[in-house]
Amino acid sequence: MLKGLYTAASGMLAQQRKQEVLSNNLANANTNGYKADQGQLRAFPEMLLKATESKSMSATESRYISVSKEIGSINSGVYVQETIPNFVQGDLRETGISTDTALVDGAYPDENGSVFFNLQTADGQAYTRNGNFTVDAEGFLTNDQGSYLLDTDGNPIQTNNQTYMMTADGTMQFTGGRNIQLGLTYVQDANLLDKQGENVYTASEEAQVADARATAGATFNIVQGAVEGSNVDMEQTMTDMMQAYRTFEMNQKVMTAYDESLGKAVNEVGKL
């Protein structure tokens, strides 16, 4: 009976964690470049139940042996193992601001491959899909948090407060003939990136990264004056939240039933 309590409790905790993930997705439905998190539910290891009893060897002898009989398997509940961002392309939003830049996915050689802008943060190099860039007081191109956007050589991009035109391959063409190429990184499996918050990711030890332009089979476009929106599906998220809530309630009712049964066992059966 106690195992049933633990199973129901683990189900409630898993659905609570799933609800938190979905609520965060919904709150970021209008955040530029946001990638919706997906909670991955996993079951705890399955256990095999056996019953052991003593059995007499013969009717005339008082010797006994232990006999094991298999009852079956039991699962001890579920948990949220991890949350993985969904890197599907978000809708483009035209802003008309020349520093806003959107990455449009094309074809990639790997199923979970994706292209990112290169950033220089306080903790080192990072990656983002949020192209809502601005020019700071010193003329450098930065993101919302003040991290520098990098060129192909890994240097912060200095605009000198000049206007520029962005080509489809990510080349910034300034007046006067100066050209700077945006630093773009192709990640073979975007699921191996570590999420740092504020739409910024860093490469884990397992992640394989390379220059996006030098990666065979990787195609993409850069659009100036637009940003990539969030890829959160609000209708689906609301549906998933209702489903998680109902599953939480079901586990709650199971716990209540077990609690009432335990109460009867202690207060009524115990009196006999």
Automatic annotation (TrEMBL):
Entry keyword annotation includes tRNA processing: no
Pfam families attached to this UniProt entry: Flg_bb_rod, Flg_bbr_C, LlgE_F_G_D1
CC terms in the record's Gene Ontology section: bacterial-type flagellum basal body
Keyword set, alphabetical order: Bacterial flagellum, Cell projection, Cilium, Flagellum
Subcellular location: Bacterial flagellum basal body
InterPro entries on file: Flag_bb_rod_N, Flagellar_basal_body_rod_CS, Flagellar_FlgE/F/G, Flg_bb/hook_C_dom, FlgE/F/G-like, LlgE_F_G-like_D1
Gene Ontology terms describing biological process: bacterial-type flagellum-dependent swarming motility
Residue ranges of every copy of the Flagellar basal-body/hook protein C-terminal domain listed in the record: 223-267
Domain Flagellar basal body rod protein N-terminal: 5-35
UniProt protein name: Flagellar basal-body rod protein FlgG
Organism this protein belongs to: Terribacillus halophilus
Lineage of producing organism: Bacteria, Bacillati, Bacillota, Bacilli, Bacillales
